[in-house]
Amino acid sequence: MRLALALALLAAPAAPAPADVDAALEGHVLPRIAALADAAEALSDAAAEGCEGLEGPFRDAAEAWAGASHLTLGPLEEGGRLRIVHFWPDGRDATARGLRLLREGGEGAWTPEGIARASAAARGLAGLERLIFEDGGEPCALTAALAADLAALTGAVDAGWDGFAALMRAAGEPGNARFLAPGEAEAALYTALVGGLEFTAEQRLGRPLGTFDAPRPLRAEMRRSERSLPNVAAALRALRELAALLADAPETDAAFARAIALADGLEDPALAGVAEPSERLRVEALQTAVREVWRTAEEEIGAALDVPAGFNALDGD
Amino acid sequence: MRLLATTALLGALALPALAATEGEVLTTYADIAEAAYGDALSTARTLQEAVDAFLAEPSAEGLQAAKDAWLAARVPYQQTEVYRFGNPIVDDWEGKVNAWPLDEGLIDYVAAEGSAPLEGHDENPAAGLNVIANPSFDLSGETVDASAITPALLADVLHEAGGAEANVATGYHAIEFLLWGQDIGAYDATAGRRPWTDYAAGDACTGGNCDRRGEYLKAATDLLVSDLGYMAGAWAEGGEARAAVLEDEGGVQRILTGMGSLSYGEQAGERMQLGLLLNDPEEEHSCFADNTHNDHFYDALGIRNVYEGRYVGVDGAITEGPSLHELLAKADPQVAEGLEDALGVTQDRMTELKLVAEAGMPYDMMLDPANEAGGALIQSAVDALVAQTREIERAAAALGGEEVAFEGSDSLDDPDAVFE
């Protein structure tokens, strides 16, 4: 709400420039989703061989996820798949409970059907991270089953994007009930961009930052695999890629460059430094820079596209 | 949702005739809030009387009367939830009365068979504090004197202690836990089965510390009444929430923000899809009382109330007036019809959930991963909420035009004419 008026005052473009939905799909969405499916497949292949040495394949999958986690529309929205691929944040330690129930179920329950019915918090990257980084990949059969489940899930998301991309390209055509006008496909991609920036600033960075008096390093995303900061950097790079394909937005791109430089300059992969005053300042500076990207993108790209951002999952928080 | 008014600015038609209607729509919106929060307050007072009577003379009948009063109080309150996200005054306050889910081990004893955390974890080191059993304890490195359980202790010390949202010490769900207790049998037809003797005097006391449990229940109920009193006043004539809406030239977008945010992120996402994904029987909004089907039903009804401009009070009184639907129908009849239809579909899906629950399959049974039909009922309601969100986005875009035109005509034309 607070930005609405500012935007209304600032924006005075002669005519909106239609975003090239096709370019965004080909140059960003489809390759990012495919990379996620490929990384999950590689993790699954490695886990099928044995439960040692899975740290590298896990981190590769996390990197791919951070580059695709903003694509919450379409196949990842269906049936809450987004939360299954990586269940986070987890305010009530549902991952621990879900894994406990899976362990209690025993190997006989670790079938594809059994895993598919298990708690989403134990499935996907959240459960795998605990098994791989806390328990050395044991029990191996469970790690392998969870990795295979993740590969199947992300494979289905990848396959689902064929049809959903066709719907986006055909926005406004007769019979397209999902996208009634070309602007709706643009708005959906723009919502993904803005939602991804908000999630990065307020969740990935905001949760561990907490407040100065009460920093929360244990709340950092994927702290066990030390992917907290790398996920921020990977997300920013992916979002920058999407932004550039949506509109000619030099100020947004410059803001991205500043934020990415700050992320790359930090050497605190688990963001544990939020509890130490000097290091904390640097994480706060990064958060400020990401918020600046968010604000700039809303002003520059929102105005250029002449589309409103839709609702995202954080709106109900 | 950032309500970008850029759409609005461009290509908008100036239709000053709609301006007066917009003011009337906002008045209807504020009137419904006043009526619904007023009902929430009066039913909470009834709950307070029932709790006082029960604590004065604990009995099975007294506990049941308090439970019945709690259930009745939820009917109007849930219909107010649509006001939360569009109104900062409500959103800043809401956590005191309806925060959820809770690590109930903060408040009282919990059993290992339940699904609440038994001890502290990454997000909430205080998850197993058990205030009722501990007159003194350490919280975030400081010793807390909890020898007297007062509204101030609950609101100022315990609620969201340590910055953990799951430390819910106040509001409907804390009271629900104190009345019903944990729902132990996962996926079965029972709700929480706290015995009334948890409040009994002397040797009859079960669960320990019955006097402190009674103090807690009393403090939480009194606090609920005073918090609801504040909000009912804020929407009455001259109240700050009413004034903020009526003064806001973008007020109609506020209504849509509230509708969309509750539909999508909150209800479809956090409250419904998440429970289905986790299969956690505590991932139901009223997990102790098994009243979740009603929570969802009345949330959805509240969304429709503010769109249709009509609210039926707990005493049967009807509050109605010029509606957002009428305003939207003037701007874009197709979008108005699409939104009305989508809200109708959602209400049908919620009715299905409600009737199945009332026929003996409570919401936590639907969360059982082995219950395909139950899960499908929840999923179809989630899908309907997601679908209605798209229509709300379309409505926001369709009404954006008039809104800025209204601002323009305001300054260009005779401003006094607008509200005549």
TrEMBL record, chain A:
Protein keywords: Signal
Entry superkingdom: Bacteria
Compartments, as annotated in UniProt: Cell envelope
Imelysin-like domain: residues covered: 33-292
Entry-linked InterPro entries: Imelysin-like, Imelysin-like_IPPA, Imelysin_sf
Cited Pfam families: Peptidase_M75
Gene3D superfamilies named among the record's database cross-references: M75 peptidase, HXXE motif
Cellular component, GO annotation: cell envelope
Signal sequence bounds: 1-19
Predominant subcellular localization, coarse grouping: other
Alphabetized CDD domains for the sequence: Imelysin-like_IPPA (cd14659)
Name this polypeptide is given: Imelysin-like domain-containing protein
TrEMBL record, chain B:
Signal peptide: 1-19
This protein's record includes keyword Calcium: no
One Pfam family per UniProt: Peptidase_M75
Boundaries of every Imelysin-like domain copy: 34-391
Coiled-coil spans in chain: none
GO CC terms of this entry: cell envelope
CDD domains: Imelysin_IrpA-like (cd14657)
Keywords from the UniProt entry: Signal
Keyword Cell division: no
Compartment(s): Cell envelope
Protein name as annotated: Imelysin
InterPro entries: Imelysin-like (IPR018976), Imelysin_sf (IPR038352)
